[in-house]
Task: inverse folding
């Protein structure tokens, strides 16, 4: 969500320069307006900021690539720090929900015995309809909807409280590199 | 049970509301980053070149496996997924001049095809004082180039033919019956000699497809291995056959080797050497062996290793950029003026 492509093409670099000039212009113009300056000054500031980015990206050799790399580093380090923070908030939600106690009969085993129980069911692969866990083989189908769909029927409504943080964490995480299919052919 | 679930939900929602306050600064800071990333993706996809896949740029050829399509005017993608404009003549080759009115015909693989180079940047179009024709397609091995040379010999009499060898994959490809499933002519050892095999070339995929590992093959060929011995023996056979063909037709033959100074190739070799630990790797070995073979056969040899640098290669591709094509065009012009001085041009 916040990360730029890992191997940018020329079109990605151009797109980035235009995107940064737009967002930068709007952000700076908005800030100026927040400080109570007139709309004209805010507009001028926005245009000036956008122009600076466009010049740096399109007219300075290697400028687009340097800006891109800088922004990539910024988003990566922000993603790491913000991920650390959001993970702790998610743990806090889990811990708070856990205060209601477990529905599993958990008790300390007596001396010399164990709390582990042997698995008596078959593999859940042929019995996926009976499994308590949502099955989603394709990442591209998304995970949020199946998770929320599973939460209600399984009695885990509290998962709805956790879901926004999980969604935010997934947005802060860098996209996984897609693997090439075996049929890719370049004639190189 | 229901009561516990409800209590858990209430506790979770309460914690979630507190958490939302704590997470607000993160969301506020993430918005511009997310906006830039989303807009970059959207604008980038609008600006992305509408390129045609390789399968539409080439056609099956029963003799040599494949050829570029004739009268092509399309955008192709290089290894870095960048688009480049390609135009071919009515025979499928790049270059403004026809084979019949050129000074120099360059035979080779993707370098001769000009992979990654727009028509304006292509070496054949950058030559001012020499009329250059390029006869090449991505993936060609030297066997395919030789077969084309032999086929075109009557049209090349009295001219200069430059035969490009890219040790990065040509030497190994000469020994293989297919390139990633595309059948191609190759050489094999038979009764103590070598011969070209082409009777397997059909428009069906080769059934035993193996992964193409250029870097590993190059490292083996640059080391004292059995594979290297076979590759250089096969090369000697092809060079001798090419030299004989050109001599008989009154063609000046020049062998040029193409170094791989590209950043991505260097990185790949370093990585591979670090993992397999070959201490006897010698990147200059192909040039030395080819120079020796050319000397023995009386062929002119021009290594491009000293004429090109890393700055002449594309960023994420092993092929040349505009500057690389310019430099190569200058070398070809030099050859033509040499020929003119020697009075050997038609």
Result:
């Amino acid at each position: 969500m916040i990360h730029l492509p890992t191997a940018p093409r020329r079109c990605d670099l151009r797109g980035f320069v235009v995107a940064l000039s737009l967002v930068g212009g709007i952000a700076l113009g908005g800030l100026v307006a927040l400080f109570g300056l007139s709309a004209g000054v805010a507009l001028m500031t926005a245009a000036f900021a956008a122009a600076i980015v466009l010049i740096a990206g399109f007219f300075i050799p290697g400028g687009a690539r340097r800006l891109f790399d800088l922004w990539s580093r910024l988003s990566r380090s922000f993603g790491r720090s913000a991920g650390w923070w959001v993970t702790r908030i998610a743990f806090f939600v889990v811990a708070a929900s856990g205060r209601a106690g477990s529905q599993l009969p958990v008790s300390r085993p007596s001396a010399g015995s164990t709390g582990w129980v042997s698995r008596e069911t078959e593999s859940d692969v042929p019995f996926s309809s009976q499994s308590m866990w949502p099955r989603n083989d394709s990442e591209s189908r998304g995970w949020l909807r199946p998770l929320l769909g599973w939460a209600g029927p399984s009695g885990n409504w509290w998962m709805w409280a956790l879901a926004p943080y999980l969604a935010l964490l997934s947005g802060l995480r860098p996209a996984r590199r897609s693997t090439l299919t075996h049929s890719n052919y370049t004639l190189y | 049970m229901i009561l516990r679930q409800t209590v858990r939900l209430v506790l979770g929602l309460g914690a979630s509301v507190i958490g939302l306050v704590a997470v607000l600064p993160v969301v506020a800071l993430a918005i511009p980053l997310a906006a830039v990333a989303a807009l970059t993706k959207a604008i980038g996809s609008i600006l992305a070149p509408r390129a045609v896949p390789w399968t539409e740029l080439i056609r099956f050829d029963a003799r040599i496996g494949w050829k570029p399509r004739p009268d092509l005017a399309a955008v192709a993608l290089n290894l870095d997924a960048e688009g480049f404009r390609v135009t071919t003549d009515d025979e499928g080759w790049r270059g403004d001049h026809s084979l019949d009115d050129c000074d120099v015909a360059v035979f080779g693989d993707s370098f001769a095809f000009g992979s990654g180079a727009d028509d304006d940047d292509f070496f054949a179009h950058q030559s001012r004082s020499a009329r250059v024709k390029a006869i090449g397609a991505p993936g060609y091995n030297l066997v395919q180039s030789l077969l084309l040379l032999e086929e075109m010999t009557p049209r090349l009499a009295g001219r200069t033919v430059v035969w490009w060898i890219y040790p990065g994959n040509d030497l190994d490809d000469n020994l293989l019956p297919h390139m990633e499933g595309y059948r191609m002519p190759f050489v094999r050892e038979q009764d103590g000699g070598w011969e070209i095999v082409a009777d397997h070339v059909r428009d069906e995929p080769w059934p035993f497809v193996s992964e193409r590992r250029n870097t590993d093959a190059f490292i083996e060929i640059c080391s004292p291995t059995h594979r290297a011995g076979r590759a250089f023996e096969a090369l000697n056979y092809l060079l001798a056959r090419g030299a004989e063909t050109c001599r008989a037709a009154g063609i000046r033959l020049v062998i040029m080797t193409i170094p791989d100074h590209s950043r991505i190739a260097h990185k790949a070799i370093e990585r591979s050497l670090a993992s397999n630990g070959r201490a006897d790797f010698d990147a200059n070995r192909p040039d030395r062996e080819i120079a020796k073979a050319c000397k023995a056969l009386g062929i002119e040899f021009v290594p491009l290793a000293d004429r090109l640098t890393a700055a002449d290669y594309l960023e994420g591709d092993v092929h040349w950029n505009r500057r690389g094509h310019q430099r190569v065009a200058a070398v070809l012009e030099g050859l033509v003026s040499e020929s003119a001085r020697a009075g050997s041009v038609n």
Confidence is low (pLDDT under 50) at residues 136-140, 178-188 of chain A. The CA atoms of residues 3 and 73 of chain A lie 9 Å apart. The two ends of chain A are 33 Å apart (CA to CA). Chain A touches chain B through 56 residues (CB under 8 Å).
